[in-house]
Hints:
The protein is mainly α. Helices cover 60% and strands 7% of the residues. It has a domain at 37-310: Rhopdopsin 7-helix transmembrane proteins (Up-down Bundle).
Amino acid sequence: xxxxxxxxxRAIDRHCRSIGVxxxxxRLSIQDCEEGYVMWYINIVNIAISAITAVIGIVLLINRIFxxxxxxxxxxxxxxxxxxxxxxxxxxxxxxxxxxLRLLSSVIIITDALPGNWIxxxxxxxxxxxxxxxxxxLYLIGIAQTISQSHSVSSWLPSPLVVDIFGSxxxxxxxxxxxxxxxxxxxxxxxxxxxxxIFVRLTYIAWFLWTGIIGCSVFYAGVRLVRIxxxxxxxxxxxxxxxxxxxxxxxxxxxxxxxxxxxxxxATFLLLYSILRDQIMTNTAANIFLxxxxxxxxxxxxxxxxxxxxxxxxSKSNPALKSKSSSGETxxxxxxxxxxxxxxxxxxxxxxxxxxxxxxxxxxxxxxxxIKASDSKHxxxxxxxxxxxxxxxxxxxxxxxxxxxxxxxxxxxxLELTSYDDR
Length: 423
């Protein structure tokens, strides 16, 4: 147990209470430290988790883009704003970068590469977290940009312009600040240690704010979206999309819960480290205890989320899933595995909604159809006076009253979020 006296050796990467007894800042070094032996194994486990998660992400992304026909970015123009990522696919790309860079950071630490180069080590430790937070931010932006156009849910979401401003800030500001602060802290490590340590603390105070805000946003949007889907799910209990919507709700709950636990847990550790850095560094047990969730929480979260994207129950062949062609003939295009591969046509509120019940994405399409069906019902229940007033409502930069038209979907399209075009 370390005493409260000042260390006889104080550097950016270590505090030494006596000759030969040093406690390391494991972000930068684990060599010749009290925690070095345990931290070596922690970094080895982190390398394994990061490698497995990165490989799964690459395989999943290749499957979705080259075999499923998904895209990274939504095309088209209109009220959706300029920041229009496909949430799942763009999220996976950022998670691949996050885990690859986390792997590289741990390799540098255990091999003691770039010794004394605190600028490089500080930067390489901080930059992966920008991609991790960026992946969650892109998922949130993608959801918000899509469902903000839905008539039934737009009342609790800002316009696409506001989403653009918030999303761009949340996506790019951490990159800019992390690079600037990490480089500055590393550059001042030898010449002005007190100032360098202040920059380290400021870095994690800023990260505490970013992760806390994004976590609250994900929680709010996820809870509201699940409520809407559950409402539709109860009404469609005997409909053809019942199982698919139920599966999709569980998937969204799993992803949102994983993100929120990760972000809020990480925010707590960041705040503690920014305030109590010296006390934590000079206490072996506290130093190791904090390093475990710091190293593993991000990798495990991205692994759970990617698995939730991969896993999807198969739909059973059901007469209710048969679709009719324009000539009125019944089309029962069902694969040998019992999964319907033909677009179903479901008339909800007088509008035709195309759905594809394919592996990996059938439940997601049903979810979006549920939102669309809710829109149709809302329009039918609106009085002529309400519709007239809505049509005359003035559009501003922050609240845009323009109802988009849903673009027809096909089996190879990205189905996590419905794609809209203005006609």
